[in-house]
């Protein structure tokens, strides 16, 4: 009997040669590093360079997070990935009333250039690439990074990294938006232009399906809605006057990896194929790099269990393997205790060790795209692709990603799938080891890491000092210049230049975001749910 895939199509008990019959291998598979990139974006893939081991981390103060990054580098991580606390993500200083109780909780608190300097102390920005999970205030954090690079003597053209900067999925699934879609997209286009001129090796956006998946999206929904957002960003940049090959090579993506290894590997392969075709056929991209879907993967946090947490080590290894078999460029493997609390030093190290075992002890990195030609995997790739294309068409029929968001389409589809998963789990049809099968009478005790609540006061004290020391007139002049640029028509002035001056004059994150809020207003979602 066929079993249903996570995307909702049947998986046959047996696939045979008929699965590959009638396919044009050039068109569907190609060579690795060649259009449509089904087999991976680089000809040599991991035989040339392993994926980047990029563990998402950050909590408490900049000093504590800096210590964690240095330890991760010592243990062999090959890229950094910064988690910011909620006030930073929402554009508020640590002493804002709305920040109370949240400072340093889910990531590091960054109020100004001073915190940023501490965060990267002793970390050579010309040798490490850094991802920053920041969306509405992405431009600010990028500029702070550039300013710290300048202080270290690293030219902007040599900086490498990624800002998430994907505000559309914030409206759909993640929630840290500030401004309405119009000005948010204008800011994204300003970032694309700024990076092209000033920080050309920077990945200007990480178009993310991960959070939709965590909210319950199926694999097909995850890639369809993410690629639809990608298409909207491409249209935005084109409308702002950029040529497609001037920005598309620096678009990047971010997906989840679940324990359903075969379908996940198929999903990554299908996503690459769809994107390559869209970029070439719909947008006329000629530069091969514009057609390559490069992506980061995080193992599925939502599949981790608080019960018998050590079982998560096994899950993460399988999920990580799926990402590698799918050809990821960069990977975060979750720590086994993440369903309970922030990872401890030891669990963070174990998570990294999982990647090191995959890269160095297994043979999956010895040959490029080892799954190619598998009857099952090629069939699943076609099936995920077909399901995703169908959803992409529905988004287009609604008028594109933003119009669909405003009609609540993606959210509703995702919630429907989340409900299905919950029902199947409750009924025991979907097995979760240690939760609805093979339970323990009594769980073993576990001592989680807790963030010190005193951090909020420390950040407030730093802000009082900063505000007393800096040149107040220079700060308000810089903020006025920023507002003026924000008031101008999209495309007339790039807000990043005055924003950089304000940050260099030690304006705080909250002040810069408030200046933009004054001009652009804030987004209030339609009350559909
Ligand atoms: C493009 C990626 C995906 C990966 O970039 P990387 O720099 O790591 O890898 P890369 O670009 O593939 O490789 C680095 C350089 O080596 C080259 N290179 C790599 N492999 C090669 C090969 N086999 N042959 C030849 N060259 C190769 C590349 O061309 C590139 O050079 P050039 O540079 O010269 O081209 C980027 O966007 C990225 O790092 N993203 C990470 C996103 C992230 O960590 N997000 C965390 C979100 S955490 C979250 O959101 C979840 C929780 C929450 O809600 O908060």
TrEMBL record:
UniProt-annotated stretches for the region Disordered: 1-32
InterPro entries: Cbl-dep_enz_cat, MeMalonylCoA_mutase_a/b_cat, MMCoA_mutase_a_cat
Domain Methylmalonyl-CoA mutase alpha/beta chain catalytic: residue ranges: 6-521
Alphabetical keyword list: Isomerase
Signal peptide per UniProt: none
Taxonomic superkingdom: Bacteria
Assembly mode: Heterodimer of an alpha and a beta chain.
UniProt-listed NCBIfam families: acid_CoA_mut_N
Protein name as it appears in the record: Methylmalonyl-CoA mutase
Organism of provenance: Streptomyces milbemycinicus
